[in-house]
């Protein structure tokens, strides 16, 4: 086995995201399946995963006992949820274990670990705060053209320092009124804008909170075109963890892919084109 097992502490790392983000094989005796311990965050060329023979796909979660086989002229990077990172070279074979990677043939290099951050397992197991609404609420008269294209859309998560409100403008409207309300209905931000987008100022949004934002024409006023959606903010711990991974991913394609997977699991949705 490569290296000693590092004691798990509160500074586990952002990669704990993987435990529930992808379906795991069903247990045959009714017991819960074992949790994933690593993720394939880069696959150059081809590789296979056993015991169920299948190609190793990018962002595949890896359970203890999985055997990886790397094809000639190929390379695989595996990141464990405690931050350890390995590069399996061409024609290598390795066994994924709960406490590390056991190389059985060929060569694997130990890469610099992903920066340790606060443990994200609880938030990623239980999910970020979610709105109680099921869909974007668009109010309008029969036959009226409602405002559409709201971003953040219903149920999306946002980073407090990068919260941008946008929508599809409607012909004939000179300006719009945009408001953001806290879950108790109190207004936390309001502004008039001629055209989107509109950035929410720093310090307005609280972590782990639910907000409703709405937009309606102001000049000329058309109340029937008002539209609104609910979004959530991440916890401060999750935001710090993501920021650490984002900083580490600069110039490292495998970590950049991992960051994209983290954002997918956190439901940080990119704007619609």
| Number of discrete domains | 2
N-to-C CA distance: 46 Å
Describe the largest sheet.
Answer: 6 strands, mixed
- Written as H for each helix and E for each strand, in order along the chain, the element string is HEEEEEEEEEEHEEEEEEEEEHH
Which percent range fits the helix content?
10-25%
Structure description:
Strands 11, 13, 15, 16, 18 and 19 form a 6-stranded mixed β-sheet that branches. A 5-stranded antiparallel β-sheet has the order 4-1-6-7-10. Strands 3-2-5-8-9 form a 5-stranded antiparallel β-sheet, with no helix packed on it. The longest helix is centred in the C-terminal third of the chain and has 13 residues. It has 2 domains: 112 residues, no CATH class; 97 residues, Sandwich (Immunoglobulin-like), CATH 2.60.40.10. By secondary structure, the chain is mainly beta.
Please give a handful of descriptors for the protein shown:
273 residues; mainly beta; Immunoglobulin-like; 2 domains; 6-stranded mixed sheet; 13% helix; 34% strand
Please sum up the structure shown.
The protein has 273 residues and is mainly beta. The protein is 13% helix and 34% strand. It folds into two domains: 14-125, no CATH class; 137-233, Sandwich (Immunoglobulin-like).
Question: How are the SSEs placed, and which strands pair?
Answer:
Elements: H1 18-21, E1 38-44, E2 47-50, E3 54-55, E4 61-62, E5 67-70, E6 75-80, E7 85-88, E8 93-97, E9 100-105, E10 108-111, H2 121-126, E11 137-138, E12 148-151, E13 156-158, E14 164-168, E15 175-182, E16 187-193, E17 198-199, E18 210-219, E19 227-233, H3 236-248, H4 253-265
